[in-house]
Design a protein that fits this description.
Shape: globular
Strand order of the largest sheet: 1-4-3-2-25
Number of helices: 0
CATH class: Mainly Beta
Order of helices and strands: EEEEEEEEEEEEEEEEEEEEEEEEE
Distance between the termini: 46 Å
Helix content: under 10%
CATH architecture: 6 Propeller
């Protein structure tokens, strides 16, 4: 019998302020709630250093963030129930792992801790991720591991000089985006029969937030990656793009109707001024609060909603 994936939480508590508030977050030794009590899991860093991010558990009522890991250098993660998988450079290079007791990163049963990126927990329990074990030109692979059979299936391969990262988009479409590489600034949607559609988004783009219908792509500054200036909502079915300046994507609501966003650049009153974006009215995101000393890069919205 295969070992069960496990995840527990431990960390410090950060209290968020209401819009316009000026108080600082406070740390407490109070144990954080179990993972199934959080409304979202967020990835961020207190010094706004994207390369040294950790995970935080987030609640809407009250607005609070609990630190779950320390010094793990997490680049990406995926959540399903109380299972959290990460790609983390806690051992010098990015390796897959699962969040364990005390914020430790443990091997994934059946996979171990391979050098790989972009873990995804699929609804059927399988795990998708990107690695670089292809041969020749197709040296980037997007694969799926079935924990019941122990088998790994290659879903798609691509040229490492072009591919930024693979992931699964709306309606099961695969896609990859290019971040600072030969063909940077593009999102390539892979349809049935491996047909492809390429959408030029901006000169530099960052990590996308994937929803049920739309893909929210962060737009980075022209001369500096990882410095978001806005977001583009991409409909992969039609190619329609809706730009929203001044906000970067964090996570879609579970039903895919709202996008949690963070204000960017000089317009921000705090490192993490959060808002709620409705794709039906994208030019007027509604502020919901701030985390004064934590910059957020991406997240997974699990349940609940901010106060209306």
């Amino acid at each position: 019998m295969r070992a069960k994936l496990i995840a527990t939480s431990v960390g410090l508590l950060f209290t968020l302020t209401a819009c316009g508030g000026g108080s600082h977050p406070t740390a407490t030794e109070t144990p954080p709630p179990p993972l199934d009590r959080f409304d979202a899991i967020l990835m961020g860093n207190a010094q706004d250093d994207n390369g040294h991010a950790d995970l935080y558990g987030f609640t809407f009522h009250p607005l609070r963030a609990y630190r779950l890991t320390t010094g793990k250098n997490i680049d990406d993660f995926s959540v399903s129930g109380t299972t959290v998988l990460v790609a983390a450079a806690d051992e010098q290079v990015d390796k897959l792992g699962q969040l364990g007791p005390g914020g430790q990163i443990l091997p994934i049963p059946g996979i171990g801790r391979p050098h790989a990126f972009g873990p995804e927990i699929r609804p059927n329990g399988s795990i998708r991720y990107e690695d670089d074990k292809g041969s020749g030109k197709n040296d980037e692979r997007f694969v799926e591991f079935n924990p019941r059979t122990g088998k790994t299936t290659v879903l798609y391969t691509g040229d490492g000089n072009e591919v930024g990262a693979f992931t699964t988009g709306p309606a099961g479409r695969l896609f990859y985006y290019n971040q600072g590489r030969t063909t940077h600034g593009q999102v390539v949607v892979i349809g049935p029969g491996k047909s492809t559609h390429t959408y030029r988004i901006a000169t530099n783009i960052g990590t996308p937030a994937v929803g049920k219908r739309l893909i929210a792509v962060a737009v980075d500054a022209v001369d500096q990656l990882y410095t978001a200036t806005g977001v583009v909502l991409l409909d992969p079915a039609t190619g329609k793009q809706t730009p929203v300046d001044g906000w970067s994507p964090v996570a879609w609501s579970p039903d895919g109707t709202k996008l949690l966003v963070e204000r960017t650049g000089a317009a921000a009153k705090a490192p993490s001024e959060l808002g709620l974006l409705d794709p039906a009215d994208p030019t007027h995101p509604r502020p919901i609060g701030t985390i004064p000393h934590l910059s957020i890069y991406q997240g997974s919205w699990l349940r609940g909603a901010p106060a209306q």
